[in-house]
Amino acid sequence: MRRVAAIAIVIAACSQHESRARLPDPMEAARRCAKALNDASTSDPALHQRTIVDGCRETIVEPVCRDAWGAYATTPPAERAHYLLVKCAEAYCAKLPEPRPQACLGIADRADAVLVQGRELWHAIHLFDLGKDATALIEAVPERVVQVPTPTPTPLPSQSVSWRIPLVTITTDAVTLEWRAPDGGTERALAIPLAQFDCKPLRDALANEVVRTWPNTVRPTRSKQLLLVADKDAIYETVLKVWKCAEDRTGVRQLYPDVTFSTQ
User: Half-sphere exposure of 106 toward its Cβ, with a 13 Å CA cutoff?
Assistant: First the structure.
């Protein structure tokens, strides 16, 4: 019996040590986060998200999730909640005790459902990293809706068109991007000399169009189609590089998963 009791004491001591190791001073981290949440409601709206990120990031222990918080302000606004949820679920779900949050079973499609899943996941993460008292301190701060101003884009001739298909053309000396409207009209967006091809301008233009067309939807119901046309003399490696750039599988959501390829 004494041996069993001794083992129980050792296990309890190890558990306490592991809990402390998740965050050295959880109450102080929670106080900083709660202060940031309060300050954000009265700060310049443009600094609202940065205030919260700076104040609350250190309440997160797992590096993948903490880094996602650090990248939050630079993530396209329409993708922020989903990006944070994906990364933090990836970092924590295997570690959280049962019953695990719904986000661990799959991320929702609708923006409102993503917010609900997010609240549940943050609660579980804070309990896991900070403990009950520190979590209660953060969650005692009332939620406030702050309108963050977004820059007004420069109107384009076809801005009123809600659905445009990107047409990427690869010749022997250039890569061009045009928008094809439903009425058949096209609008030139980019022309990059092949010798100076850089994926970023093309990817940025495609990403901006995705956000403009589907501002609040992570996975739109309508397929996002891209037309890729290559000159018959274009080098295969170049075509493949442009194709991968246009698809863009590196972000939270694939930009244009439905690529139709042809040669001319």
Answer: 3
